[in-house]
Specification:
mainly alpha; 11 helices; 2 domains
């Protein structure tokens, strides 16, 4: 029940994990922070944290839940998030966390500003997604992007959704600002 104290200790653990590049300890810290976020009714944050924890656990060749008796907390958090957000938003938030780099996941868990966009995108977007980001910045609709790149409108929409998820954005305007600020693909 001491959520503030638990958060402080988990964030301290996460800072240490980041300083020694330990994805397994980061995974367990992020996972427990997700449970706390859920208890605080911030289920979207909980989903992002679970996705980040899962990715860090996989990077370590493990799970984000080291002790089987703690799986019930994970399951309860996941169930609550799906019921609150719905499956589509749940999966989208979880994918956002899963796409984060170690540095971005740690910053998110620590409630710090994320690493610079240049750092985040260098290896995150595919070449096609970089092209789509540039066209979004030009103000093109999904249909116009599809016409320009000779792909289907649904494929263009999929690329935009992937860009939003990978960069942790929620709007096309953020993509445009990102590209316009020189952080985007060149």
């Amino acid at each position: 029940g001491a959520l503030d104290r638990a958060t402080d200790l988990l964030q301290e653990s996460l800072r240490h994990a980041r300083s020694v590049d330990d994805p397994l300890i980061a995974a367990t810290s992020l996972e427990a922070l997700a449970w706390i976020a859920s208890d605080r009714d911030d289920v979207r944050r909980a989903c992002v944290l679970m996705g980040a924890a899962e990715a860090r656990g996989q990077a370590a060749g493990s799970s984000s839940i080291l002790f089987p008796n703690l799986a019930t907390y994970h399951e309860a958090c996941e169930r609550r998030a799906q019921e609150t957000l719905g499956t589509r938003e749940f999966e989208k938030a979880r994918a956002q966390g899963g796409a984060m780099s170690f540095a971005a996941a740690a910053a998110f868990g620590l409630e710090e500003d994320p690493p610079s966009l240049v750092d985040r995108v260098a290896s995150v977007l595919t070449k096609r997604e970089q092209q789509v980001a540039e066209l979004v910045a030009e103000g093109l609709t999904n249909s116009a992007i599809a016409g320009r790149l000779m792909i289907s409108r649904r494929t263009a929409q999929g690329h935009v959704e992937h860009i939003l998820t990978k960069l942790g954005f929620t709007s096309r305007a953020q993509i445009a600002r990102w590209v316009g600020a020189g952080a985007g693909p060149s």
